[in-house]
Amino acid sequence: MKNKNPQIILGIDPGYDRVGYCLAQILNSKLEILDFGCIQTNKQNSLTQRYQETSKNLNKIIKKYKPNILAIETVLFSVNKKTAMRVAEAKGVITQICLTNNLEIFEYNPNQIKLAITGNGKADKKAVEKMLKLELKLPNKKTLDDAMDAIAIAQTHYLVNPKPAIV
Predict the structure, then answer these.
(1) In the 3-class helix/strand/coil scheme, how is the chain assigned residue by residue?
(2) pTM (predicted TM-score)
(3) Is 135 an annotated catalytic residue?
(4) Percent of the chain predicted with pLDDT > 90
(5) Which of 21, 103, 123, 151 lies in disulfide reach of 127, CB 3.0 to 4.6 Å?
(6) Catalytic option among 73, 107, 124, 129
(7) Averaged over 43-61, what is the pLDDT?
């Protein structure tokens, strides 16, 4: 019996300034990219307004593509604790929106993502981007790092958690 609902993955690179996103579906045992980009918030707005902007735009994306899985990057604490806290807060907002929309949630750290995409957990961003462009036949145009990270997160979920193909 065929599953009539394709598995659609929402890959997210969380942030409070810019959120990278990727929508991908598993079709015929392949990952097909449906859309990708960034939700850019206005730097002039308060942090609360920026989270509201992210929520509004993310809800539009979810309504349009109807993903059933969220694959999101783990927030690692950096030298700048204030930035890390804001990204963690934004991740909380994003996670809540996805829970409200009944998405199953999976989380991946940067080393898992690099390992899944390149075979090397210490690969640099250029190596990850090169592999994604080769594997997924992405257009050879400049893509914001946040969007490319979201594509990598969706691809990681596909590679690490394969599900039966939708035919």
Answers:
(1) CCCCCCEEEEEEECCCCEEEEEEEEEECCEEEEEEEEEEECCCCCCHHHHHHHHHHHHHHHHHHHCCCEEEEECCCCCCCHHHHHHHHHHHHHHHHHHHHCCCEEEEECHHHHHHHHHCCCCCCHHHHHHHHHHHHCCCCCCCCHHHHHHHHHHHHHHHHCCCCCCC
(2) 0.90
(3) no
(4) 66
(5) 123
(6) 73
(7) 96
